[in-house]
Structure formats: C-alpha cells, structure tokens
Write a structure and sequence with these properties.
Strand 1 and strand 2 (35-36) form a beta hairpin. The radius of gyration is 17 Å and the shape is elongated. A two-stranded antiparallel sheet has the order 1-2. Helices cover 70% and strands 4% of the residues. It has one domain (2-110). It is mainly alpha-helical and 111 residues long.
C-alpha cells in the first residue's frame, strides 16, 4: 500500500494545480468569427469553474498528471518494477484513489 500512496502523492499536487487552473479559466469561442474570446474573469465564472473542479480533477487533470509524471519521472518506473508492481497496476490503483478523493470534492457542485 505504501507504493500506491507514494505514487499518488507524486501526482496529486500536479493534478490539483492543473485541475484548478483548467476549471477557473473561462474559455469560450466566438462562433461567428471562429476566434477565441479573451477570458473574462468574474465571480460568476470563477464559481462556475469551481463547480466543475471535481469532474476535471477526476478525469482530465488525472490524465494530464499521468502524462507529466511519465515524462519527468521515468526513472521511478524501475522502483515499481523492482518492488514487484507494474506501472499499469500502480496507475489503476491511483485512479481509484483519485475517484475517492474527488468524491470529497463533490460538495463544491452546490456552492
């Protein structure tokens, strides 16, 4: 269990940071001109972004954190292999842990 917790701690901060940034930036497209509209921050858009945080944290943020982890921490793969764990097993258990943590963030939907 320590190995799973070590891996989850390794990607948790990346996931939280990326998810928070992705959730509060209001990206909208101007469909007539097909040009991106500059983000306009307001209290309403920030609260709407926080409502999306649990879902982004559980899905997109986790996937991006896994990709960043594979890019920067390739050497730790040998740690898991030497301890008898496959990388897929560690990632799948971390995903389940991430779902449990995102359930605690779910009350943000009702802000």
């Amino acid at each position: 269990m320590k190995v799973y917790w070590f891996y989850y701690k390794q990607i948790l901060l990346m996931n939280l940071g990326l998810s928070f940034i992705l959730s509060i930036i209001p990206l909208e497209m101007d469909m007539e001109a097909m040009l991106p509209v500059a983000p306009m921050f307001s209290v309403d858009s920030t609260l709407e972004g926080l409502r999306k945080l649990p879902f982004i944290f559980a899905t997109i943020g986790f996937l991006i954190a896994i990709i960043v982890d594979r890019f920067f921490y390739k050497q730790t793969n040998f740690l898991y292999y030497n301890l008898g764990f496959s990388k897929g097993e560690v990632v799948s258990v971390a995903f389940l842990m991430n779902i449990i943590v995102s359930l605690f963030l779910l009350p943000l939907r009702w802000i």
